[in-house]
Write a structure and sequence with these properties.
Distance between the termini: 27 Å
Order of helices and strands: EEHEEEEH
Structural class: alpha+beta
Strand content: 25-35%
Shape: globular
Radius of gyration: 14 Å
Strand order of the largest sheet: 3-2-1-4-5-6
Largest sheet: 6 strands, mixed
Length: 119
């Protein structure tokens, strides 16, 4: 089963909350699988911190809508401010729940699985 997600880029602006969907986005991508925070979330954070490439993203029009996505990610950027990430668990008929707001390093600390614990 696929865990679908949309990744949206928004500008950090005064008075716009990271824990709410912004009114304006500037780019949008779709990821068909591994869209959960421990997968895609960590990939996004590591890409922002270490300039790692992310594969299997599909660029979309800003108006594209999917009725079957499970997560929406916002990457908040501005030239003179640090980058932040918000993750929403899609509510499917209920209000979407903001499950994470923070800088990329905080996302890695929260969601990256500790592979040393298993080996």
């Amino acid at each position: 089963m696929s865990t679908r997600a949309q990744i949206r880029f928004a500008t950090r602006e005064e008075g716009v909350s990271f824990s709410e969907h912004p009114n304006a986005i500037h780019a949008q991508f779709y990821k068909h699988h591994d869209g959960y925070p421990e997968g895609l979330g960590v990939d996004i954070a590591e890409s922002l911190l270490n300039y790692q490439k992310i594969i299997n993203w599909e660029i979309e029009s800003l108006s594209a809508y999917h009725s079957d996505i499970e997560y929406i990610y916002y990457i908040w950027q501005a030239l003179d401010k640090s980058t932040w990430i918000s993750i929403f668990k899609v509510g499917w008929g209920e209000k979407d729940e903001c499950i994470f707001v923070g800088e990329p390093s905080n996302l890695i600390s929260k969601y990256k699985l500790n592979t040393n614990a298993y080996g």
